[in-house]
Amino acid sequence: GAVVSQHPSRVICKSGTSVKIECRSLDFQATTMFWYRQFPKQSLMLMATSNEGSKATYEQGVEKDKFLINHASLTLSTLTVTSAHPEDSSFYICSARDLLRPRLPRGTQYFGPGTRLLVL
Amino acid sequence: AQKITQTQPGMFVQEKEAVTLDCTYDTSDQSYGLFWYKQPSSGEMIFLIYQGSYDEQNATEGRYSLNFQKARKSANLVISASQLGDSAMYFCAMRERFGNEKLTFGTGTRLTIIP
Fold first, then answer.
1. What is the number of other CB atoms lying within 10 angstroms of the CB of residue A26?
2. Does A49 touch chain B (CB under 8 A)?
3. Per residue in A51-82, pLDDT tens?
4. Distance between CA atoms of B22 and B13, rounded to whole angstroms?
5. Residue B10 and which of A54, B21, B32, B106 are 20 to 30 A apart at CA?
6. Is residue A51 within 8 angstroms of chain B, CB to CB?
7. Do B43 and A57 touch (CB under 8 A)?
8. Looking at the predicted structure, is the pLDDT value of residue B1 above 70?
9. Which tens digit of pLDDT belongs to each residue from B8-34?
10. Which residues, listed in sequence order, are joined to residue A7 by a DSSP beta bridge?
11. If DSSP codes are grouped into helix, strand and coil, which group holds residue B85?
């Protein structure tokens, strides 16, 4: 259980285009999902917290107009990188919490496999 | 100020030996949680083990154990009888009480198991 999927796994796009990344919780409902960005050989940096049915909460320094997040259902959150530029090339990872698993430690997140974005 | 510090960027360990990955943290909260995640080369983050700040005993999960020293603010991961499949990046993370369930990650340690 607690499987999180991401699509696509890899994407190459031209500079100036928009790219949408989907994050799905396959076997549980996720009221909260998180979006991270990871540069090569670096740690995960939280970009935003996505709550179902409400606006996402962005971390300081993350442009909300550039990284659009939509959490329309309990199993799906999307991240859209608008007008992508080469500096947006990175590994994007989503995670989700399963609140209905009572034995899980508070704060446990299950991660998707990640999406590698390359902007040419 | 960095909240999670992992001072070992890389480690090489002989197969079947035990290995300790260091993690120190900084928080003013009394209630917090510490996590260890494994990231293989494929990229996915795998949850390994958790230690709550009020847990009196060190957490254990199979070959993984956590050496929790609260006064020193350290939460080192111990992997016993290492296997080739343990080669990966390992991240220590902290959930603070007022952090809206957010996790703050350390910079990671790349562990390589040598046959």
1. 12
2. yes
3. 888 889 999 999 999 999 998 888 999 999 99
4. 14
5. B32
6. no
7. no
8. no
9. 999 999 999 999 999 999 998 888 999
10. A22
11. helix
Q: Which of B42, B43, B101 lies closest to A32 in CB terms?
A: B101
For residue A49, give the nearest of B33, B35, B100 by CB distance: B100
Cα–Cα dist B10/B30, whole Å: 31
Q: Could you give the CA distance from residue B87 to residue A33 in angstroms, rounded to a whole number?
A: 28
Q: Residue type at A77?
A: S
Using DSSP's 3-state secondary structure scheme, residue B100 falls into: coil
Q: In the prediction, which pLDDT does A27 show?
A: 84
Name the CA dihedral angle for A40, A44, A47, A53, rounded to a multiple of 10 degrees.
Answer: 130
CA-based nearest residue in chain A for residue B6: A43
Q: pLDDT digits over A75-116, tens only?
A: 999 999 999 999 999 999 999 987 666 566 767 888 999 999
Q: Does B36 touch chain A (CB under 8 A)?
A: no
Q: How far apart are CA A38 and CA A41, in angstroms?
A: 8
